[in-house]
Amino acid sequence: MPTRYSAYRQRAELRDSIKKTEQMLADPYRMQAVTRKDEVRRNLAKDRERLDAISPPPLETDSRRKALEVREKKLREAMVLGDPRKGLEPMPSRRMMQENPSGSTGKHIRHEKFWKFHTLDANGNPMLAPDKRGASLEWKDVKRELCQDHEVDDPDIANLETFRPDDDRVPLSDQHSPRSYGLSMTAKENFDEVFPDREKLPVEAKIAAEGGQTVFTKCQATTKKNNEICGRPTKDNKPYCFYRNHRAQFEPQTEVA
Q1: Dihedral over alpha carbons 162, 65, 58, 149 (to 10 degrees)
Q2: Which of 1, 98, 200, 201 is the most buried (most CB within 10 A)?
């Protein structure tokens, strides 16, 4: 079952359609070309009823606004925090959704499916929604009723992603989106001081043996196929060409697959 109230864009499109039909009915010259005038009037009446059904009612009292604000907070906190004592998982974090580590897809599906058909009773306990309109759908309707005055300026006013939590989880090797963390210029300059016992690269040993700065015009990286020097032209006195694997031989990196 969808939400009770539609998004502002859908309501605005239906409202414009009703306005155009009303203008046509009020113009005798345009109505001369209409053969089924009664059908046009019936469709207009149906569109008006549908617009009233999918539009949130105006907030006329402060008590109604306060009740909606309390309900919105309870539903949001229940979906975000969950309840471990009752076996309710918390909402997957934004980082988990973006990096998609192992197990995150199942958590998202379970969380979404549960709150699509379950809501909270008057005491804040989870229950099966009697009208098959769970907490996620009810929250959208509550937000559209609360924020109907400025929904035109914020199309994401009833988007569940607006309150998806952040976390400080460190990306691990089980994430599905690859990442490469390159060292900053400051880290590269102080790399030898931090790791004095590291094994020097062949090109570094060559520069040290020559006792000065070497001007590179060709790539000094070794190829994987036959372990020979690449030899492609380089730019800005770099010892590597445009291949990422060749650059990695000279710039220490930490990669997370």
Answers
A1: -40
A2: 201
